[in-house]
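Weekly sync, protein design subgroup
Attendees: M.S., D.O., the rotation student, P.L. (late)

Item 1: inverse folding check
M.S. brought a backbone from last month's batch and wanted to see whether the design step gives back something sensible before we order anything. D.O. pointed out we never logged the input encoding, so this time it goes straight into the notes. Structure tokens as presented (324 positions):
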């Protein structure tokens, strides 16, 4: 199985040592012509066992670190791997274009679709270019314009969610960030076409749900989805950033917590070691799961899709209101 070489997280140090041994052995084989296949195989099997043991019992904070790993595949990676003939559509026809919000039309498994999502970038230059995945009002209005296009031409919508939240700057507030997010949720609920959203990394606050109020909400196994970041929660409830681990526990932000609570519809399993180490495999796996859900949704009428989607989110609100 092809594995990406990535920077190890703090809790993966013992695994990084084994990865380093394998890397040095392979380099030694290339330079000296030695046959060390048996030792590489042994270490690779040990590495696989370590990954399975570690990733089967990650804490919520460790899952948060994995979800934020800079080497995880981002929105544009999924677009490149799953969407043929993708044509980006830019601008909100009101203020300008927002690079953090990706949007366009293409073909998914032979079917024309509208794609929207947040792009974080993969290095410093692209992170700055895409504003670290934090969209401004024009980004959410661009997404709404694409949803209207989907309704007009009866095109299914696929959304890839990966943001720490909407951009919190003064200029965003001046241009109506709150209204743009609220209108985004309304557009999601009013769609009369199949709508599947996938949380591929972080799903932060209204910045995520503005394009994620879908018929089917899916999450990668080690992604997170929450009303506020753990850091923000810790600073509000405990007045201390040192309580961030306690905040992750309280927020119930993991895919497993949210599936148990009925907030999401399915968890997409990640290969051992996380999506950051297996780009091609996880992108193909996401494509297969999204295709399955789209096929189920395509059998429903536009009115049914809209009503079931609205009822789904209203039911959540009533359930949590009663539990309080």
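Designed sequence read out in the meeting:
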């Amino acid at each position: 199985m092809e594995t990406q070489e990535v920077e190890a997280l703090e809790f993966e140090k013992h695994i990084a040592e084994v990865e380093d041994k394998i890397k040095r052995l392979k380099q030694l084989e290339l330079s000296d012509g030695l046959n060390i296949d048996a030792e590489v195989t042994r270490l690779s099997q040990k590495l696989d066992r370590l990954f399975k043991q570690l990733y089967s019992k990650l804490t919520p904070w460790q899952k948060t670190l994995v979800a934020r790993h800079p080497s995880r595949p981002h929105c544009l990676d999924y677009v490149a791997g799953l969407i043929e003939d993708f044509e980006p559509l830019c601008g909100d026809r009101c203020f300008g274009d927002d690079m953090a919000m990706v949007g366009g039309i293409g073909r998914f498994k032979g079917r024309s679709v509208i794609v929207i999502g947040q792009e974080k970038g993969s290095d410093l230059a692209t992170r700055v270019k895409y504003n670290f995945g934090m969209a401004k009002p024009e980004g959410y209005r661009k997404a709404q314009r694409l949803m209207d296009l989907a309704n007009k031409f009866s095109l299914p919508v696929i959304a890839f969610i990966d943001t720490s939240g909407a951009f919190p700057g003064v200029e965003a507030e001046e241009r109506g960030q709150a209204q743009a997010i609220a209108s985004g949720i309304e557009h999601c609920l009013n769609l009369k076409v199949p709508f599947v959203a996938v949380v591929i990394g972080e799903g932060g606050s209204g910045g995520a749900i503005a394009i994620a109020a879908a018929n089917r909400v899916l999450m990668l196994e080690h992604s997170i989805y929450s009303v506020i970041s753990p850091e923000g929660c810790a600073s509000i409830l405990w007045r201390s950033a040192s309580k961030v681990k306690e905040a992750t526990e309280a927020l119930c932000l993991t895919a497993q917590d949210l599936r148990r609570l009925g907030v999401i519809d399915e968890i997409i399993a990640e290969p051992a070691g996380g999506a950051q180490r297996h780009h091609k495999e996880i992108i193909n796996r996401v494509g297969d799961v999204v295709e399955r859900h789209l096929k189920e949704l395509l059998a429903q009428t536009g009115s049914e899709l809209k009503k079931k989607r609205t009822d789904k989110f209203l039911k959540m609100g009533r359930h949590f209101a009663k539990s309080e």
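Discussion: Residues 10-56 form one domain. The beta strands are 83-88, 101-108, 111-118, 157-163, 195-204, 216-220, 224-226, 266-268.
Action: P.L. to compare against the previous round before Friday.
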